[in-house]
């Protein structure tokens, strides 16, 4: 792959640790915005879900899932990108390679992300006040599959999001590197990640609203139960109007814009530090 600025890393250990640092940093720093976004998207409404009170409810669950989820994403992303790049050495296919690599990364990461997201969102909307109570209730009433409620809708949200964000991010970096004649600095990558994330966040808000409704509903809710992203989207549009599909777009764009800056900035900084100090430099 003839791209100067695609981190000539080849070291998945570095990607794993850098991803863990990035995921934990952004989820911890911006958790209140995520809570507000979730409450705006919930069916019971913002105030009934807690308003501005207890905006750190579910933080522990989010932190537990942050490091492994982000690590899985970046390891899969870098490995897939490297494998496909070695096979398809043509710059014109770079966006497709980034889309495919990011989609694989998101799908793998969701195996860890979804269970923690289910518990986190139910705590954010005041269904539960303790993580242990939320986990035991889901397992008791819905079984292990209940922990993966909304898995497909999450993947259906993440893949379009990442297919917009990462090609844009890589394009911005590549173009900037060509103009400047050097690799991008971490702070520059952070700004590019912020812009790419904001665009992707706005475009995929309806999918995020549907994902939130599905995760928050339970099978014993006969009238409020949501199941399936297409049927959920149709129902929201019919019952609440098309505008409801963009509920929480402000906090979502802000969260992902700032989060993208922190996430990709920390990731790039960690990688640069590892390379300079030759930390985790064994290749595999």
Automatic annotation (TrEMBL):
Gene3D superfamilies: Mitochondrial carrier domain. Solcar repeats lie at residues 10-83, 93-175, 184-273. InterPro entries: MCP, MCP_dom_sf, MCP_transmembrane. It is found in: Mitochondrion inner membrane. One of its GO terms (biological process) is transmembrane transport. The chain crosses the membrane at residues 55-75. GO terms for cellular component: mitochondrial inner membrane. Signal peptide: none annotated. Keywords: Membrane, Mitochondrion, Mitochondrion inner membrane, Repeat, Transmembrane, Transmembrane helix, Transport. Coiled coil: none annotated. It comes from the Eukaryota. The keyword Manganese does not apply. Pfam families: Mito_carr. It is a multi-pass membrane protein. Belongs to the mitochondrial carrier (TC 2.A.29) family. This is S-adenosylmethionine transporter.
């Amino acid at each position: 792959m003839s791209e100067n600025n695609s981190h000539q890393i080849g070291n998945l250990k570095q990607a794993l640790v850098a991803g863990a640092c990035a995921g934990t940093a952004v989820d911890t720093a911006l958790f209140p915005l995520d809570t507000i976004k979730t409450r705006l998207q919930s069916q019971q409404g913002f105030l009934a879900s807690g308003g501005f009170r207890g905006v750190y409810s579910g933080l522990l669950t989010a932190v537990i899932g942050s490091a492994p989820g982000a690590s899985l994403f970046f390891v899969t992303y870098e490995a897939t990108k490297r494998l496909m790049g070695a096979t398809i050495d043509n710059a014109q296919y770079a966006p497709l390679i980034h889309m495919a690599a990011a989609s694989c990364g998101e799908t793998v990461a969701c195996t860890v992300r979804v269970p923690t997201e289910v518990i986190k969102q139910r705590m954010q909307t005041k269904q539960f006040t303790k993580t242990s109570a939320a986990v035991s209730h889901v397992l008791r009433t819905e079984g292990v599959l209940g922990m993966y409620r909304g898995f497909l809708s999450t993947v259906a949200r993440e893949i379009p999001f990442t297919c917009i964000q990462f090609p844009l991010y890589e394009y911005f970096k590549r173009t900037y590197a060509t103009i400047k004649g050097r690799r991008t600095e971490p702070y520059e990558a952070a700004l590019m990640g912020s812009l790419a994330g904001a665009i992707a966040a706005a475009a995929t808000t309806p999918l995020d609203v549907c994902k939130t409704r599905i995760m928050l509903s339970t099978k014993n809710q006969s009238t409020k139960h949501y199941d399936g992203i297409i049927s959920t989207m149709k129902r929201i549009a019919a019952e609440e109007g098309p505008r409801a599909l963009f509920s929480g777009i402000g906090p979502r764009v802000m969260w992902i814009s700032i989060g993208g800056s922190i996430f990709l900035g920390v990731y790039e900084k960690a990688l640069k530090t590892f390379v300079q100090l030759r930390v985790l430099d064994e290749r595999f």
